[in-house]
Amino acid sequence: MRYRTTFYSALSRLLMIELGEDEDRFERFMMPLADTFERVASQLAAVGSPVFPEEELKITFIGLCRDLQGVAYAFVGKTSFMMFFDWLYPRHMEVLHRCLTLWCHLPSVSTPLLKLMAEIVQNKQQRLQFDVSSPNGILLFREVSKVVVTYGSQMLSLQDMLPSEVYSVKYKGVAVTFQMLKYALSGNYVNFGVFRLYGDEALDNALNMFVKLVLSIPQSDLMHYPKLCQAYFSLLEIIAQDHMNFLSGLEPQVCSEVLCLCCFV
Fold this sequence. Notes:
Layout: H1 3-19, H2 23-44, H3 54-74, H4 78-88, H5 93-103, H6 107-121, H7 136-156, H8 166-186, H9 193-197, H10 202-215, H11 219-224, H12 226-242, H13 244-248, H14 252-264
Helix pairs in contact: 1-3, 2-3, 3-6, 5-6, 5-7, 6-7, 6-8, 7-8, 7-10, 8-12
C-alpha cells in the first residue's frame, strides 16, 4: 500500500513537466481521486447502520491518503501546489476530519492521514504563498489545529498499553503530529496575531494539546525513540522562538517538566 505514495509522486512529477497553469488538465488528473472522495463521503453516511462497509472503506481511505501524499510531495512549485490546495480545501477537508474522528485509534488509518496533513502544511520551496488579503493561511492552520486536538484527545484516552505496542499505537502518530504542528508554526504563511485579536482559540488549543501529549509520555520513552525525540525538540524550538508568551504562561510544574527534559538531553 505504501508504494502508492511513490507511484502518485512519480505521476505528479510527469504531470508538472507540461502542466503550467492548465487547471483543466489538473482537474482531469485529479478526477479519480475526486471520485474516491465522493465514494468515501457517500459511504460515511451509513456509519452506524448494518450495511456500513467499514473494512472496505478503511482500505479505500488509506489508499486515498497515500495517493494524496504523493501528489502533495511532488507539487513543489507555487502554481501547481496552489491548484492542489484549492482542489482539496474546503470541499474535501470535511471527509478527512470525519475519517480521523472515526478511526483515529487505528494507526493503520490515522498515520497515513497525519502524514498527508504534515506534507500539505510543509512550506518547502515557499510553495505556500497566499495573497496578503487571503485568509487561507489562517484557515489552513485551523484545520491543523482540529486534527491535532482530535487525534491528541484520542491518544490521551489510551490506557494500559503493552510496551511492545506503545510505539506503533501512540508514539509514532504523536511524532508525526508534532512534525505537522512544527511545519504549520514555522511555515511563515500564518499571521498568528489574528487568532488572539479575534478570540480564535485554534492556536492555543493546538499548543495546549502539545503540552498534554508531552506530559503523557514518560521521559524515558521520549528519549528512547529517536523520531519522537527529534520531533518533540524541533517543535519545542519553534514554540520557544516564536511563542514564548505561551510557554511563559504555563503552570510552574509544566515549565519544570519541559526544563527537566531539556537538561536530560
